[in-house]
């Protein structure tokens, strides 16, 4: 069976003005909004999204419609709709190109979602290090206000919504939804205790939905074409389509929008395979916080259930692919340094643990110490995993434990050689092998 | 022991002179007006004061604190948490090289090493001012959500995709020589301070800038292109 691509969110990206209001309207832009506001009650919108089977695209995979239904109604408090556009998980690179190319579909999804949960104030929390995305978002919001898709009495429905683009300032942890809310309140971005969950006490202690960009952007097509159409993609429990972002040692890296459940083998087929003369060594199914996979996992269907059954997490479908020239110790050390840098410092296991992991790793990478060093590494991991205050700690441990599981001997080889046995010059895109001189 | 070594607080900042306050006031008030609760304006206000000075100074912190009714200690606590707020003057350009794993392996490490040598600066350091009157600050950065364009760099947080050591050196030479530089997915690069004003939530003063770089880079289109070739739609 050949794989069928499903360009929905990316359907018009090859047009010169796909990011403008005019460009979007040529592709059914804002027709779902009209349908939702004029033909559906808020509860009907929630039910449609629930029944579509859409699950969060930000990594956790929580059912989007169910999350919306948790917002208490008639509670007299303001409700907030917050879009998580912090995209900083290493390897993840889908929301940023999406917002560059089609910010209006996100805005349409926001208005529909806010209508569903009865919110009159929405925010897009976008990471700060993406100036051009901020430009596109600001312009799109201005256009949407001018066209009457935001502001007072949207499309004559009596529904009001204000939308603010809020730009972050460089902190991976602000992608964690409760840290994001603290950051949006003008504080250091540190995770909060849960419960209370954001649906009960979120932004300004009021009921709040936090959703990933891609989750929200998937809503207009669901409203437009119906839950049954959405369910023709993916599987029973992992319905719909999504971006699979291929990067690394592949011939054609980039964005592939397909039904959930595709395999890496099928994706590599589309992407021209591993770069010439090389073979797959390890890859991340969903960003650096998801346990590594190897050649043995080429046929794992990339949906929530199957990836988990194979020992990892679907995460953000950030497929970072590394060939046999890459030292797994070098790769994981760099991620470990990232987690140590990004640890928010709130809890001891993560703050101290990630620091000590880096120290131990640097020694190992340099081929110093003994096998005991490896055990120490795993020991520290044990003290972080499941004991940290938020999922950043567990994420930090994932690549370490999985790489030792699959490549223990490579670690030992560093110790035997007294240095790293790999040549970093061979991993680059300009390494001779790629140009045929291999 | 000097007082500095004891970690005693420094003399409070005097605050901005009146003409700076007058200039900042309309923008600052517009930022605050966006939010139902004032304190939410702190991150964009810090971007705004960074747009004023090229870093977050004691004066800038005091300005934010006074606008929001916070203590300078509270504002300092927030400013130091986020890596984009700089405590030392950034040059006319902030140049970032992604050295997170994917980019590092694909060549980011080599690019960063060559740039350091070429410019004679270390991480998070500013070059001397060039004969053309420009300087830049070099920093290695974390994954910038452009891994399919690896190895990638940024100038004032604009995307420079599919870089090589030679392209990187030519890029910084152009910046220091005052030659115009255009982002791969974005417009011509403006100054670091102008960029920071955009990050405070104000549209680029150059009306055309939003159109720079087209809708999507080639890597963003690979899946769509194959789908069209094969006549597949959703
Ligand atoms: C350390 C950390 C970083 C995260 N970063 C992001 C992010 O950048 N974007 C995102 O949408 N979700 C991120 N998440 C997940 C969010 O906490 C949250 O689950 C998600 O935004 C919910 O949206 P969804 O249900 O639509 O997926 C992160 C979680 C953790 C623990
Ligand atoms: S696990 Fe790390 S990032 Fe999360 S709260 Fe603890 S210190 Fe902060
Ligand atoms: S690792 Fe460099 S952009 Fe993702």
UniProtKB/TrEMBL annotation, chain A:
Necessary cofactors: [4Fe-4S] cluster; FMN
Catalysis performed (reactions): a quinone + NADH + 5 H(+)(in) = a quinol + NAD(+) + 4 H(+)(out)
Q: Which InterPro entries match?
A: NADH-UbQ_OxRdtase_51kDa_CS (IPR001949), NADH-UbQ_OxRdtase_suF (IPR011537), Nuo51_FMN-bd (IPR011538), Nuo51_FMN-bd_sf (IPR037225), Nuop51_4Fe4S-bd (IPR019575), Nuop51_4Fe4S-bd_sf (IPR037207), Soluble_ligand-bd (IPR019554)
**Keywords linked to the UniProt accession:** 4Fe-4S, Flavoprotein, FMN, Iron, Iron-sulfur, Metal-binding, NAD, Oxidoreductase, Quinone, Translocase
Q: Which residues form the NADH-ubiquinone oxidoreductase 51kDa subunit iron-sulphur binding domain?
A: 329-374
Instruction: Give the molecular function GO annotations.
Output: 4 iron, 4 sulfur cluster binding; FMN binding; metal ion binding; NAD binding; NADH dehydrogenase (ubiquinone) activity; oxidoreductase activity; quinone binding
The superkingdom listed in its UniProt entry is Bacteria
Q: Which Pfam families match?
A: Complex1_51K (PF01512), NADH_4Fe-4S (PF10589), SLBB (PF10531)
**Which EC number(s) does UniProt give?**
7.1.1.-
Q: Per its database record, what is this protein's job?
A: NDH-1 shuttles electrons from NADH, via FMN and iron-sulfur (Fe-S) centers, to quinones in the respiratory chain.
Family, similarity comment: Belongs to the complex I 51 kDa subunit family.
Name this protein carries in UniProt: NADH-quinone oxidoreductase subunit F
What species is given as this protein's source? Answer: Actinospica durhamensis
From TrEMBL, chain B:
| Residues at which [2Fe-2S] cluster binds | 98, 103, 143, 147
Annotated keywords: 2Fe-2S, Iron, Iron-sulfur, Metal-binding, Oxidoreductase
InterPro entries per record: NuoE-like, NuoE_dom, NuoE_N, Thioredoxin-like_sf
A Gene Ontology molecular function term of the record:
metal ion binding
Q: Which Gene3D superfamilies does its entry note?
A: Glutaredoxin, NADH-quinone oxidoreductase subunit E
> How does the cofactor attach, per the note?
Binds 1 [2Fe-2S] cluster.
Of which family is this protein a member? Belongs to the complex I 24 kDa subunit family.
Protein name per its UniProtKB record: NADH-quinone oxidoreductase subunit NuoE
* Taxonomic classification: Bacteria, Bacillati, Actinomycetota, Actinomycetes, Catenulisporales
Gene this protein is translated from: nuoE
């Amino acid at each position: 069976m050949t794989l069928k691509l499903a360009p929905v969110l990316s359907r018009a990206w090859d047009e010169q003005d796909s990011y403008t209001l005019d460009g979007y309207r040529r592709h059914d832009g804002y027709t779902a909004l009209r349908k939702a506001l004029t033909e559906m009650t808020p509860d009907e919108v929630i039910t449609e999204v629930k029944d579509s089977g859409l699950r969060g695209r930000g990594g956790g995979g929580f059912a989007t419609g169910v999350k919306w239904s948790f917002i208490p109604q008639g509670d007299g408090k303001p409700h907030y709709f917050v879009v998580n556009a912090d995209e900083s998980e290493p390897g993840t690179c889908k929301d940023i190109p999406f917002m560059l190319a089609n910010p209006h579909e996100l805005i349409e999804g926001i208005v529909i979602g806010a209508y569903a949960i009865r919110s009159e104030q929405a925010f897009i929390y976008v990471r700060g290090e993406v100036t051009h995305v901020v430009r596109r978002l600001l312009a799109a919001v201005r256009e949407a206000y001018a066209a009457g898709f935001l502001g007072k009495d949207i499309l004559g429905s009596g529904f009001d919504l204000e939308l603010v683009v809020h730009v972050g300032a460089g902190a991976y942890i602000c992608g964690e939804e409760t840290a994001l809310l603290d950051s949006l309140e003008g504080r250091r971005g540190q995770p909060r205790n849960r419960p209370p969950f954001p649906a009960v006490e979120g932004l300004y202690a009021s009921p709040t939905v936090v959703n990933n960009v891609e989750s929200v952007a998937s809503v207009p097509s669901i409203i437009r074409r119906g839950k049954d159409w959405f369910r023709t993609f993916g599987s029973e429990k992992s319905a719909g389509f999504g971006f699979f972002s291929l990067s690394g040692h592949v011939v054609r890296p980039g964005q592939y929008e397909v039904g959930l459940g595709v395999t890496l083998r099928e994706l590599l087929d589309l992407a021209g395979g591993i770069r010439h003369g090389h073979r797959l060594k390890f890859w991340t199914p969903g960003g650096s916080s998801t346990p590594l996979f190897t050649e043995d996992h080429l046929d794992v269907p990339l949906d929530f259930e199957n990836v988990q059954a194979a020992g990892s997490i679907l995460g953000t479908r950030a497929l970072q692919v590394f060939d046999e020239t890459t030292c797994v110790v070098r790769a994981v050390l760099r991620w470990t340094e990232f987690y140590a840098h990004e640890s928010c410092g709130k809890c001891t296991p993560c703050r101290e643990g990630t620091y000590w992991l880096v120290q131990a790793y640097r020694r190992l990478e340099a081929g110093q110490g003994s096998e005991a060093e490896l055990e120490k590494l795993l020991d520290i991991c044990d003290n972080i995993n499941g004991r940290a205050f938020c999922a950043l700690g567990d994420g930090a441990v994932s690549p370490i434990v999985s790489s030792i599981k699959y490549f223990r001997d490579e670690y030992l080889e560093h110790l035997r050689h007294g240095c790293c046995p790999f040549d970093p010059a061979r991993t680059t895109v300009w390494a001779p092998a790629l140009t045929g001189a291999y | 022991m000097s007082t500095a070594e004891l970690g005693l607080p420094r003399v409070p900042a005097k605050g901005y002179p009146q003409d700076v306050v007058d200039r900042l006031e309309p923008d600052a008030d517009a930022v605050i007006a966006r939010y139902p609760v004032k304190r939410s304006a702190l991150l964009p206000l810090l971007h705004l004061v960074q747009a004023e000075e090229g870093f977050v100074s004691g004066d800038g912190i005091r300005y934010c604190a006074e606008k929001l009714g916070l203590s300078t200690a509270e504002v300092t606590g927030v400013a130091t948490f986020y890596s984009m707020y700089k405590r030392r003057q950034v040059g006319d350009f902030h140049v970032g090289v992604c050295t997170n794993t994917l980019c590092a392996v694909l060549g980011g490490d080599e690019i960063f090493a060559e740039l350091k040598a070429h410019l004679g600066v270390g991480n998070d350091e500013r070059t001397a001012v060039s004969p053309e009157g420009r300087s830049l600050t070099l920093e290695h950065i974390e994954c910038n959500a452009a891994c399919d364009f690896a190895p990638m760099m940024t100038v004032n947080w604009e995307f420079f995709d599919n870089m090589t050591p030679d392209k990187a050196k030519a890029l910084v030479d152009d910046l220091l020589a005052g030659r115009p530089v255009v982002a791969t997915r974005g417009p011509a690069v403006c100054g670091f301070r102008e960029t920071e004003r955009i990050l405070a939530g104000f549209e680029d003063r150059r009306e055309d800038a939003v159109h720079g770089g087209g809708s999507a880079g080639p890597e963003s289109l690979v899946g769509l292109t194959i789908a069209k070739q094969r006549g597949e739609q959703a």
